[in-house]
Specification:
The complex is a heterodimer.
Chain A: E1 6-17, E2 20-31, E3 35-40, H1 46-53, E4 59-66, E5 69-70, H2 76-79, E6 84-87, H3 99-104, H4 116-122, H5 124-128, H6 139-152, E7 157-161, H7 169-184, E8 188-192, H8 196-199, E9 205-210, E10 213-219, H9 227-234
Chain B: E1 3-4, E2 7-8, H1 9-40, H2 47-65, H3 69-92, H4 100-122, E3 138-141, E4 144-147, H5 148-170, H6 172-182, H7 184-189, H8 194-216, H9 226-241, H10 246-266, H11 274-285
Antiparallel strand pairs in B: 1-2, 3-4
Helix pairs in contact in B: 1-5, 1-8, 1-9, 1-10, 2-3, 2-4, 2-8, 2-9, 3-8, 5-6, 9-10, 9-11
The chains are: A alpha/beta, B mainly alpha.
């Protein structure tokens, strides 16, 4: 699985918030068109891994190569322009902007992003509510908006943090369909997910994290064989 | 003499006009403060000194370089904006992650230094700056005589205030500013150069003070103290309007000018304190300010 068309390669990544050492030497990679999940309990360092890729943590050492570019010394506002779209756990919908302003806010980072029409076709609810204040939307709609917002920029590496958290089953199912569509389009997705049943059928590979380390790598076809081990780590 | 219910209409409309003019300056200055506070969370105590700097720049440009009022109206805000950009980049940014008290004290110190330098150079008596020829004279209205330059102040500052409001509330650039106010880290993650926007915003906010300074030069005497005198009132206005609200800063500035003018007519003894009394009442009733969002 190594080599080939790597979109993200992380080697010996350490990350710190102030004095706390959160990640202890992460090694992982994501290939073009893959959907990879980071599994683990809360506090195991999954969100920090995504935030480290975005250079949104206090300090980081090691190596993060995105699309062939070493980014460990790249300022945060230049990371997105390598084709990375980040959807944070708190969704970060701007309350001072309406839905359409939220959608149009991030600058295009590549030329082949989805058009507004395509976005509204994929998420009809957003069209109906395009003039509403961003944070007046339901949780599910806000999640759709957070996702749509980075699709419009043309980002082809998506970092998605807990996108199903707290959402109704029907919305979770819809998000699963959307991710499958995006994967068919050739997008590369790194997904932090608590909901294992959501992640299992759509992911190609899983990394299991604990205490800031990657403790296991599980291929999609090994899930059944390794389910007991996963249950121990995830505490389900 | 025209009176209505015992009110001298000449006197009243005269004070109303003075109120509107003062209000125009309050609006320009508090708008600048609100923009800066919104994105940088800095209470810029140097805003008054930069207003003074604008008036002095206009005076110096005319005196030493023969640059007239109209050119100064464009060039001086740019020059003051550059001073602001340097201030942000080299003095405020290094302490951006410290407690807000540091930036407040720093800007306060800068204001004192600027005021001191100009007192040393030009004394404290004040210079006069002639009204540009095109705006000399005035118009006779039913209840008052309206000097052209004073009408110009009101029209020009309203135009600048409204354009600024429109830019922030209705354009893409303004959306960056509003979103940057809310969540700068996420803006960075979207690939927007937030430190650059912060610097430019600070520059723009203080350029508004520079613009107000040029406008003020022909009506108030150009003196080192002009900034500190007006700033105290402007801070009271910002508290009344609510920190960080753009439209609120403009409306409150104008309204407080008018309130001050009316008080000057009806009860002159209170005219210098009325704004502070309004501030106390607003703080008691709606601590976030008239247009502020409750935390």
């Amino acid at each position: 699985m190594k080599g080939g068309d790597e979109k993200i390669r992380i080697s010996d990544l350490h990350a710190f918030y102030g004095e706390s050492h959160i990640l202890h030497g992460i090694d992982m990679w994501v290939n073009q068109g893959e959907l990879v999940t980071l599994l683990g309990r809360n506090g195991s360092g999954r969100s920090t891994t995504l935030r480290s890729i975005m250079n949104m943590v206090g300090r980081r050492t090691g190596s993060i190569v995105i699309n062939g570019n070493e980014t460990i010394d790249t300022p945060p506002h230049k990371i997105a322009h390598l084709g990375v779209g980040f959807c944070p756990e708190e969704r970060a919908i701007f309350s001072s902007l309406n839905v359409e302003e939220n959608l149009m806010l991030p600058p295009a980072v590549r030329s082949d992003g989805m058009s507004l029409e395509e976005i509204y076709e994929m998420f009809p609810n957003l069209y109906e509510r395009r003039m509403s204040q961003g944070t007046r939307l339901s949780g599910g709609e806000q999640q759709m908006l957070a996702l749509a917002r980075i699709l419009r920029t043309g980002a082809n590496i998506l970092l998605l943090d807990e996108i199903t958290e707290g959402l109704a089953p029907v919305i979770v199912r819809r998000l699963g369909e959307v991710l499958t569509q995006l994967k068919e389009r050739g997008l590369t997705i790194l997904l932090v997910e608590q909901n294992f049943r959501f992640a299992a059928p759509i992911a190609d590979r899983h990394y299991v994290m604990e205490h800031g380390h990657i403790v296991e790598e599980v291929m999609a076809h090994e899930l059944e064989a390794k389910s007991e081990m996963l249950n121990t780590y995830l505490g389900v | 003499m025209a009176t209505f219910l015992g009110i001298n209409l000449f006197g009243l409309s005269g004070q109303l006009l003075v109120g509107l003019i003062n209000g125009s300056f309050y609006a320009l200055l508090s708008l600048g403060l609100a923009i800066i506070f919104g994105l940088l969370r800095i209470i810029n105590f140097a805003q008054g000194a930069l207003y003074m700097l604008g008036a002095f720049f206009a005076w110096m440009a005319l005196q030493y370089m023969g640059i007239n009022y109209w050119a100064a109206l464009i060039l001086v805000p740019l020059a003051v904006g550059v001073v602001g950009i340097l201030m942000e980049r080299y003095l405020l940014r290094p302490i951006a992650n410290e407690d807000h008290l540091y930036s407040l004290l720093l800007t306060f110190g800068l204001a004192l230094i600027m005021q001191g330098v100009f007192t040393q150079m030009y004394g404290s008596s004040g210079m006069s700056y002639a009204i540009p020829d095109a705006l000399k004279g005035g118009t006779r209205l039913p209840f008052m005589y309206l000097p052209n330059y004073r009408a110009w102040i009101i029209v020009a500052s309203l135009a600048v205030c409204f354009s600024t409001w429109w830019m922030i509330e209705k354009t893409k650039l303004g959306a960056y500013l509003r979103a940057g106010t809310e969540n700068p880290a996420m803006m960075q993650a979207f690939g927007i150069n937030v430190p650059l926007i912060v610097t430019l915003t600070f520059g723009f906010g203080v350029a508004l003070a520079g613009f107000a300074g040029v406008m003020a030069a022909p009506v108030y005497s150009v003196s080192p103290e002009m900034g500190s005198n007006i700033l105290i009132v402007v801070f009271a206005i910002v508290v009344i309007g609510g920190m960080g609200s753009i439209g609120g800063a403009i409306l409150t500035g104008l309204a407080m000018g008018v309130v001050e003018g009316l008080t000057k007519y009806f009860y002159p003894e209170a005219s210098t304190t009325v704004i502070f009394m309004v501030m106390v009442i607003v703080l008691l009733v709606k601590p976030a300010g008239l247009f502020g969002k409750e935390a």
